[in-house]
TrEMBL record, chain A:
InterPro entries: AA_ABC_transptr_permease_3TM, ArtM/GltK/GlnP/TcyL/YhdX-like, MetI-like, MetI-like_sf. One of its GO terms (molecular function) is transmembrane transporter activity. One of its GO terms (biological process) is amino acid transport. This is Amino acid ABC transporter permease. SUPFAM superfamilies: MetI-like. Its main location: membrane. It is found in: Cell membrane. It is a multi-pass membrane protein. Signal peptide: none annotated. The chain crosses the membrane at residues 24-48, 60-79, 99-121, 142-164, 198-217. Belongs to the binding-protein-dependent transport system permease family. GO terms for cellular component: ATP-binding cassette (ABC) transporter complex. It comes from the Bacteria.
Automatic annotation (TrEMBL), chain B:
This is Amino acid ABC transporter ATP-binding protein. It comes from Paenibacillus soyae. Keywords: ATP-binding, Cell membrane, Membrane, Nucleotide-binding, Transport. SMART domains: AAA. PROSITE patterns: ABC_TRANSPORTER_1, ABC_TRANSPORTER_2.
């Protein structure tokens, strides 16, 4: 580093050259949020319905993924899972690293999404469920018509934070050799030695996507919570509590990584 | 038309209802009075199975559920025969007034949407909310929300409407509008069971008054008997404490 004079023109050039790798980043984010939502639902259900043993297991799951750094989780899955599967004669040595990355990020965001689902469902007051029963609905109708739509709109902001957090977390995937935007930036940096310019364009790229996602979720929230103009504050209190919780533990995790 | 026999309910070791027997005729308006914690809410909730009685039998309009071993179909049918108006209104917050009333008609009674919409608008008109069809609960006052709750109950054409302290969460100046709506539908001959602390309302709307204490029915009878000449000591004390004005105003 340092043998080149800083030149702003390179920032634009590298920004442009990073763009193709964006699809890898977005692939990881998209598929891990998609799979993570399914995982999250599966993990939340035993807690919502208080299923005896499964409930403990899902709590354990959540604490593991929330309580350990994602970098360590990545290494554990990448190096550990093939070792374990070798014992039962399944060979994963040729499986692409991307598979392990998506696996890890899915399981990881699944833990956070489970917490969001749990919080949002319990934030819909019990009285409305009783009213639904009193009207003659069955359990499924009450859940799908009354609880779920409200839980979804309540959870949008926190869910947005998880997606953005996940986007930033994917920047660690380069440690397994993934050529996402960070991986690509590393490679280009090593070749050109223009790290400053490259990191500026990389930061800009992350920022633009985060910003766009933030706007998107804000809009979605406004649209879905249009029935709570005044009380939106109310649910926001609950949410900002959740939000802080998520933010704080992410922050702690980041600290732990340093 | 409605017959409860030996309804019992316990929460863990605590027995909350000690075998309630009650008969309600078609078109009756029954007021249930009693100190807080006496089991009034629990009794109402048992009638439409929001709470599962530990024992007893519930008959509505010739259909009997044995509470020891009810089937899912029993419970469903029982719930369809009654409707509930809650103390906290419990409106669906993501739905407009109109949608709140329509919901049961469309989802449970499988009515075509257009028909349900017309019927619901009519009912909201009737409770004085013809201009609030598209308002969300958050945009309505407590009194208005409770009137939507009443319209929602009426929509289902229930055999009986159960009211659990319908005005207790309301600001005093909003109580009147809700009571007058209830009074109006009582005149139409709909069977109702109302838990209330509004003594003068109970006195002039009810055809039958029940006084409960500690999970039993202490005394019941015509409003005049109960309010003017209660026989039981507990009823006397309660009325004195709760409605001193009615003791003197004769
Ligand atoms: N879900 C519950 N779990 C345990 N105890 C309950 C529950 N609901 C009511 N109770 C108890 O049952 C008794 C009767 O309550 P309730 O029916 O609400 O009385 P009321 O409506 O007359 O004030 C009270 O002692 C109350 O504490
Ligand atoms: Mg009560």
């Amino acid at each position: 580093m340092g043998q080149h004079q800083f030149e702003i023109a390179y920032v634009f050039e590298y920004f442009y050259r990073l763009l193709p790798s964006l699809k890898v980043t977005l692939l990881i984010v998209g598929s891990s949020i998609g799979l993570g939502t399914i995982v999250g639902l599966l993990v939340a259900l035993p807690q919502l319905y208080r299923i005896p043993v499964l409930r403990r297991l899902s709590q354990l799951y959540v604490s593991f993924f929330r309580g350990t750094p994602i970098l360590i989780q990545l290494f554990l899955f990448y190096y550990g899972v093939p070792e374990v599967l070798k014992l039962v004669y399944v060979d994963l040595t040729r499986t692409p690293a991307l598979f392990f990355v998506i696996l890890t990020y899915s399981l990881h965001s699944g833990a956070y999404i489970a917490e969001v689902i749990r919080g949002a469902v319990s934030a819909v007051d019990r009285g409305q469920v009783e009213a639904a029963y009193a009207v003659g609905m069955n359990g499924f109708q009450a859940f799908s018509r009354i609880v779920l739509p409200q839980a979804l709109s309540i959870s949008i902001p926190v869910f947005g934070n998880i997606v953005i957090g996940n986007l930033k977390d994917t920047s660690l995937a380069f440690t397994l050799g993934i050529l996402d935007i960070t991986g690509k930036a590393q490679t280009m940096g090593t070749l050109s030695q223009r790290f400053i310019e490259i990191y500026i364009s990389l930061a800009a790229l992350y920022f633009i996507i985060s910003f766009a996602l933030q706007k998107l979720f804000d809009r979605l929230e406004k649209r879905l919570l249009r029935h709570e103009p005044a009380a939106a504050k109310d649910s926001l209190v609950k949410i900002s509590f959740l939000r802080k919780d998520v933010a704080a533990s992410k922050w702690r995790r980041k600290e732990a990584q340093l | 038309m409605i017959k409860l026999s030996q309804i019992k309910k316990s929460y863990g070791r605590q027995q909350v209802l000690h075998g309630i027997d009650l008969t309600v005729g078609k078109g009756d308006v029954v007021a249930i009075l009693g100190p807080s914690g006496s089991g009034k809410t629990t009794l109402l909730r048992c009638i439409n199975y929001l709470e599962r009685p530990s024992d007893g039998e519930i008959t509505i309009d010739g259909f009997t559920v044995h509470c020891k071993r009810p089937t899912k179909a029993d419970i469903h049918r029982l719930r369809k025969q009654s409707a509930m108006v809650f103390q906290q209104y419990n409106l669906f917050r993501h739905k407009t007034a109109l949608e709140n009333v329509m919901e049961g008609l469309v989802v449970v009674h499988k009515q075509p949407k257009e028909q349900a919409r017309l019927r619901s608008a009519e009912l909201l008109e009737k409770v004085g909310l013809g201009d609030k069809l598209d308002a969300y609960p958050s945009q309505l006052s407590g009194g208005q929300q409770q009137r939507v709750g009443i319209a929602r109950a009426l929509a289902l054409g229930p055999k009986v409407i159960l009211f659990d302290e319908p005005t207790s969460s309301l600001d005093p100046e909003l109580v009147g509008e809700v009571l007058s709506v209830i009074r109006r539908i009582a005149k139409e001959g709909i069977t109702m069971i109302i838990v209330t602390h509004e003594m003068s309302f109970a006195q002039d709307v009810a055809s039958h008054v029940v006084f409960m204490d500690h999970g039993t029915i202490v005394e019941q009878g015509e409003p005049n008997e109960i309010f003017r000449a209660p026989k039981e000591e507990r009823t006397k004390q309660f009325l004195k404490r709760f409605a001193p004005e009615s003791a003197y105003s004769i």
